[in-house]
Amino acid sequence: MDTIQSIRQSAEQFPERIAYRVADTAISYKALWDESREYASLLRKQGTSPVIVYGHKSIYMVVTILACLLAKRPYVPIEEGTPLLRINKIVTATGATLLITDKPLDIKNILCISLSDMKRFAGDTEHNCDSDTAYIIFTSGSTGEPKGVPISRSNLDNFTRWISGLMPLKEYESITVFNQASFSFDLSVADLYYALCGGHTLLSFQGNIIEDPEGFYKAFKEADVAVMTPSLARLCLIDSSFDYKNFSKLKCIYFCGERLESKVARKLFEAFPDLIIINAYGPTEATSAVTAVLITREMAENELLLPVGEICAAATEIEIVDDEIVLKGKSVFSGYLGGPKGGFYKDGDVNCYRTGDLGYIKNGLLYCKGRLDSQIKYMGYRIELEEIEHHINALEGVSGSAVVASYDSNGTVKAIKAYVEADFPVKTRDIRQELSERIPHYMIPKTIKQVDSLPLNDNGKVDRKALGSL
Amino acid sequence: MSIAKETIRALIQEICEDDTICDDDFDLFESGLLDSYAIMELFSRFEDWGYDIQITKIDRNKLRTINGIAGLLGVND
Question: Does residue B60 form part of some domain?
């Protein structure tokens, strides 16, 4: 069964069950299916290009995403608040002619409308929409441009079959699945499709734990299964009320998006003795995740580096080539939008991807121990430090910059720092403000320090190690 | 454990990775310095110092400045 068939089955079997709930709004499976079908028909009458879906967690977003899938028009999720310059780049890169949003937004060269306005812009006849691409997610790119990762419908089908069959997720019936990530972050692909294909209720919280911890905990208490980053778990654990007594429904947490530290797993087992922890791994280029493993209390107590997956139950073939994790098979994309090859290559007819992640396999388990390049994960977000440098260097008066990550003793990124050469006195606040118009908030360096000149090594490249002592 | 405001200032400078923060009313949120990671560090240090402070039970605005944090910990000087 493919993804659409699975969601249709959920709608037929459980029409009155809540499919998605956020804040004080909810939509049943029947309503979600019916509305999505209606809008899919209008989408087919409007055009064939990819559709930008702009907004935050809302019923609106979920209906639009499903409508695009049904219409066979690729959806391109963009989180509310993304800088306009970045949205423009995404519009150009995708060739999208339609942006659907329930937010006030006006962008040149693209039709920006709400779903309810679709009728006015749809023609009388349906176009031949038959894209093989399910969605395109943009990630940070080392060239300074966001990088489009198209995921095909068959990639998505392979992923949804894999996650729906994953133990113990497979065994749960009629549960509430907690969604942390925005729909533009591919971690959400896991909770969205696991929930909808399984007939579960997906639950989102619109704010965040820092701004509204009480509201966050109140929503989270209703979850049976949570799909989240280890960073969020670390934040949850700073409140001692985060335990099995107060979160009595919570059975399982599925982690992905960054490294799960043993210390965090240990603390979770202390707070929730019966918790099932799934640690998953996979890049956006291979449809959210390709491997997963149950983390036992023994692993959390004895292993410094936790495994990220069981090779025998992976969604793709996994090989280690010169210490690098290489993925091959049905979940792997067919190359970046616009052609840059990156780690993509073909082996006969099989899509392959060199992840840039350093790893090894031991006793049938996959371990990931770092990166080959300067890509980092910060609070779950994937960031190319060169992209930040590119945007700082483009600022008037800046002659050079180096952006580095600082790490805590567990190897987790704790801050992004920039060192800037400029012919004017650099004010951190001004540069942060200028960057906020170009890159997402999580990419903006925490500290920006002016230097007379960036230290260089013998090869004439920036000596990043020496930057720490400046 | 008795904490001086100077200790709190030093902690903020350390976790925000900015040793130029000297104004006790400087807005740590608006500046972007007290982000999610820094808040985790802050609460972890509260715990080390023996304070049982629950993020769900406090006014978030008290974390906005060094003076606010000092007030939260009952430090006056």
Answer: yes
Task: Give the contacts of A285 (CB within 8 A, at least 6 positions apart).
Answer: A149, A327, A332, A333, A342, A343, A344, A353, A355
- Better-scored residue on pLDDT, B1 or A433: A433
Chain A CB within 8 Å of residue B55 CB: yes
Summarize pLDDT for A35-93 with one digit per residue, the tens. 999 999 999 999 999 999 999 999 999 999 999 999 999 999 999 999 999 999 999 99
**A9 to chain B, closest Cα gap in Å:** 40
Q: Which of A240-254, A336-350, A456-470, B35-49 has the highest mean pLDDT?
A: A240-254
| Min Cα–Cα distance to chain A from B77, Å | 27
DSSP letters, B37-70, are HHHHHHHHHHHHTT----GGGS-GGGGSSHHHHH
Residue A469 sits at the chain B interface (C-beta within 8 Å): no
Strands (E), A115-266: 133-139, 147-152, 176-179, 201-204, 225-228, 252-255
Cβ of B60 within 8 Å of Cβ of A235? The answer is no
Would you place residue A328 in the very low, low, confident or very high pLDDT band (cuts 50, 70, 90)? Answer: very high
Q: How far is CA A12 from the centre of its chain?
A: 29
- Same domain? A185 vs A312: yes
| Predicted confidence band of residue A302 (pLDDT cuts 50, 70, 90) | very high
The Cα–Cα gap between A186 and A333 comes to: 13
Terminal Cα distance for chain B, rounded: 15
Question: Is A447–B40 a contact, with Cβ atoms under 8 angstroms apart?
Answer: no
Mean pLDDT of chain A, nearest integer: 94
Residue A137 is assigned to a structural domain of this protein = no
Amino acid at A256: C
Confidence (pLDDT) at A147: 94
pLDDT tens digits for B8-59?
A: 999 999 888 888 888 999 999 888 888 888 898 899 889 888 888 888 888 8
Chain B nearest CA to A214, separation (Å): 5
Q: Which residue of A has its CA nearest to B53?
A: A239
Task: For residues A121 and A14, state if they share a domain.
Answer: yes
Q: Please give the tally of structural domains in chain B.
A: 1
Burial A237-271 (b: 16+ CB within 10 A, else e): bbbeebbeeebeebbbbbbbbbbbbbebbebbbeb
With an 8 Å Cβ cutoff, are A240 and B43 in contact? no
Nearest chain A Cα distance for residue B73, angstroms: 16
Q: What is the ipTM of this complex?
A: 0.82
Residue A279's CB is within 10 A of a number of other CB atoms, namely 24
Q: For chain B, what is the largest distance between any 2 Cα atoms, rounded to a whole number of angstroms? A: 30
How is residue A459 written in tokens? Answer: 């090869």
User: A387 and A368 in one domain?
Assistant: no
> Is residue A283 a part of any domain in this protein?
yes
A214 CB neighbours in chain B (<8 A) are 56
CATH code of B15's domain: 1.10.1200.10
Structure confidence at residue A430 as a pLDDT band (50, 70, 90) = confident
B4 at the A interface (CB within 8 A)? no
Residue B77 lies in a domain: no
Establish, for the pair of chains A and B, how many residue pairs have beta carbons separated by less than 8 Å.
Answer: 54
